[in-house]
Amino acid sequence: MSDTRPKVRLCVEHPLGPAQSVPLARDQAHYLFNVMRLKPGDAVALFNGRDGEWRAEVAEAGKKGGTLTCSLQTAPQLDPPDLWLLFAPVKKARTDFIVEKAAEMGAARILPVQTGFTNSERIRRDRLQAHAVEAAEQCGGTFVPEVADLARLDQVLDAWPEDRRLMFCDEAEVGAGLALDAAGPGPWAILVGPEGGFTEAERARLRRLPFVTTVSLGPRILRADTAAVAAMTLWQDRLGDWR
Ligand code: SAM
Q1: Is 218's C-beta closer than 6 angstroms to any atom of ligand 1?
Q2: Where do the structural domains in the chain lie, given as residue ranges?
Q3: Over the stretch 204-241, which tens digit does the pLDDT of each residue have?
Q4: Of 103, 176, 199, 225, which residue is most buried, by most CB within 10 angstroms?
């Protein structure tokens, strides 16, 4: 990271721009002034998912709040490719891991979906969104993917946008080639199932859908979190912004 890009990064809601004053919420002030021990005049890298990254100096530092003043744009806004990750929630720590890796690896949207064999009946969306924010702060990104509310897979498929292709990771498809290249760039999504995999009915429906490309992630059965990372790696390398 260049020396104009401060090491401490913070995601804010507030607009960013030249000489823009940015008020801090209590938890942000606690993080900057108590945890990171920053003082007036110290610099922070701010981003809000829209205006790129801005160097901002601490103008006021208080126990319950404070303000920063933007001085210099240090990175342009860089949006990820138009890729959604649909995954069936698994155990809490692994679900957290999937969201964190999806944010780091360039997902534009993260959709937890309930499938026939999904064990989790509900998710803490706000907590998962916080993981996505932390991942963006850590990886130097200027974009934060939205984590959607948990929705039933069949309902998501019923309302599927017709221009978006879906990479269906099917553990039953052992050894099939990866036909992503043939489908080409554009809006995409990846679907990874739960520990118990997909039901036969889900598999049959998905395979019939015109926007679905079924892929294998190799001859071994991967854990859902491993599969999410593997699938995103494949997609990013073939069709995304890793080249
Ligand atoms: N149904 C499997 C079983 O019971 O052994 C386990 C499913 S696996 C733990 C969870 C998800 O990861 C699958 O539904 C699939 O989306 C993906 N996955 C795991 N291994 C895969 C592979 N070799 N090829 C394609 N997808 C895979």
Answers
A1: yes
A2: 9-75, 83-239
A3: 999 999 999 999 999 999 999 999 999 999 999 999 99
A4: 103
pLDDT per residue as tens digits for the range 34-82? 999 999 999 999 999 999 999 999 999 998 899 999 999 999 999 999 9
**CA of 232 relative to ligand 1 center, distance in Å:** 14
Helix (H) or strand (E) holding 122: none
Question: What is the CATH T-level fold of the domain 9-75, as seen in this structure?
Answer: Ribosomal Protein L25; Chain P (2.40.240)
Residue with tokens 């860089």: 78
**Closest atom, ligand 1, to C-alpha of 191:** 16
Cβ 222 under 6 angstroms from ligand 1: yes
Distance, C-alpha 52 to centroid of its chain = 17
**C-alpha–C-alpha distance, residues 213 and 190, integer Å:** 10
Distance 228 CA to ligand 1 centre (A): 10
Beta bridge partners of 242: none
Q: Do residues 144 and 180 make contact, with C-beta atoms less than 8 angstroms apart? A: no
**pTM as predicted:** 0.93
CB atoms within 10 A of CB 101: 19
Both tokens of 25, joined, read 């919420």
Tell me the C-alpha distance between 69 and 74, whole Å.
Answer: 14
Q: Tokens representing 158?
A: 């019923």
Three-state DSSP class for residue 162: coil
- Going across the sheet that includes 43-47, the strands are 9-11, 43-47, 53-61, 66-75, 21-24
Q: Whole-angstrom Cα distance, residue 231 to residue 60? A: 45
